[in-house]
């Protein structure tokens, strides 16, 4: 909880640093000079000493990919191991901010320093923008001391990196921790293969919301695309079409050949509990592992991190069901 001695500010792009072009707002480089000028104009704002790094080229977070997550992870690890940084502030676009916060939560398990992600709904420099309040608010939080782990700071709130979703597309108060039931068994000890020291590889992970009219052919086509894991967003407490034998057979066959099948609830405040309804039990019997009250962002990121560590399907299922960083337990 001590204030950092050397903070890395890692700029990835996003609305916070965007500037106008002929086609509209686009990510722009050179944000360090703008940040230093703003800080010099307001020396009363608390902020740790910081160094600046920028991912090149800066991106619109709507274009976020797994390779960007891995680049962020590598930059953070290098800053801690090689440059002696003891905290990180990562500037990011809002469209996929919650996804990246969740991904880094699992890619940096056990790192031992605070990592805060923030961004803004309007660019820095726009009158009334939330950019500087969010950025300097995050710096002030770090100056006061933040517990190790990945956090998201937005609109004056410090949020858990693996429990947060974007709920609004226009309001400054766009993010919140989703009020899902949180219970489950915590991992007693993390193996070295799951900690921040373990480099990761890309993984082919997909999500599919269940909906009335979903056909077995839809599921078969997705499973035939080479996915290593499929996250089903089920109804309610984990139910789905239990009378479609072709669909159930497609899931069973995929699981038998090593595809990890996981389930979360579509409900904003729901969680999976397969045994409540027969429809849930039949779906679970195809090989699904419960994601409890995890958000979509957390479940996808967790599957990516586990598969990217090279774990076998059975190992992925084992660790997916356990709480690793507070995604399943308060």
UniProtKB/TrEMBL annotation:
Ranges for domain Asparaginase/glutaminase C-terminal come to 204-320
According to its record, what are the GO cellular component terms? cytosol
Specify the signal sequence span: none
* Any GO BP annotation: aspartate family amino acid metabolic process
User: Enzyme group, top EC level?
Assistant: hydrolase
Per the UniProt entry, the Enzyme Commission number(s) are 3.5.1.1
Which positions does UniProt annotate for substrate binding? 61, 94-95
InterPro entries in the record, alphabetically? Asp/glu_Ase-like_sf, Asparaginase/glutaminase-like, Asparaginase/glutaminase_AS1, Asparaginase/glutaminase_AS2, Asparaginase_C, L-asparaginase_C, L-asparaginase_I, L-asparaginase_N
Question: Would the keyword DNA damage turn up in this protein's UniProt record?
Answer: no
Q: Which residues does the UniProt record annotate as the domain L-asparaginase N-terminal?
A: 6-186
The alphabetical list of record keywords is: Hydrolase
Task: Quote the PROSITE patterns the UniProt record gives.
Answer: ASN_GLN_ASE_1, ASN_GLN_ASE_2, ASN_GLN_ASE_3
Positions annotated as active site in the UniProt record:
15, 94
MF terms (GO), sorted A to Z: asparaginase activity
Family, per entry: Belongs to the asparaginase 1 family.
What this protein is called in its record is asparaginase
């Amino acid at each position: 909880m001590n204030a950092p001695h050397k903070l890395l500010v890692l700029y990835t792009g996003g609305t916070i640093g965007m500037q106008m072009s002929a086609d509209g707002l686009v990510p722009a480089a050179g944000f360090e000079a703008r940040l230093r000028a703003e800080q010099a104009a307001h020396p009363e704002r608390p902020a740790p000493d910081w160094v600046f790094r920028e991912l090149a080229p800066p991106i619109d977070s709507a274009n976020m990919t797994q390779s960007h997550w891995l680049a962020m992870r590598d930059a953070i690890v290098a800053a801690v191991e090689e440059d002696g940084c003891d905290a990180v502030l990562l500037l990011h676009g809002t469209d996929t901010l919650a996804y990246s916060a969740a991904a880094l939560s699992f890619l940096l398990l056990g790192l031992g320093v605070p990592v805060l992600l923030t961004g803004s709904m309007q660019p820095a420099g726009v009158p009334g923008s939330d950019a500087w309040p969010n950025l300097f608010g995050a710096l002030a939080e770090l100056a006061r001391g933040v517990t190790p782990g990945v956090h998201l700071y937005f609109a004056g709130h410090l949020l858990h990196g693996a429990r947060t979703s974007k709920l609004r597309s226009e309001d400054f108060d766009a993010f919140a921790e989703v009020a899902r039931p949180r219970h489950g068994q915590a991992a007693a000890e993390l193996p070295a293969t799951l900690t921040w020291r373990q480099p990761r590889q890309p993984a082919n992970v997909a999500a599919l919301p269940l909906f009335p009219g979903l056909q077995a052919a839809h599921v078969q086509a997705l499973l035939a695309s080479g996915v290593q894991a499929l996250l089903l967003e089920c109804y309610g407490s984990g139910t789905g079409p239990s009378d479609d034998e072709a669909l159930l057979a497609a899931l069973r066959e995929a699981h038998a050949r090593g595809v990890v099948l996981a389930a979360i609830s579509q409900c904003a405040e729901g969680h999976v509990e397969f045994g409540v309804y027969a429809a849930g039990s039949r779906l679970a019997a195809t090989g699904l592992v419960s994601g409890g009250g995890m958000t979509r962002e957390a479940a996808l990121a967790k599957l990516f991190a586990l598969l990217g560590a090279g774990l076998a399907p059975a190992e992925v299922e084992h660790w997916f069901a356990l709480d690793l960083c507070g995604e399943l337990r308060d």
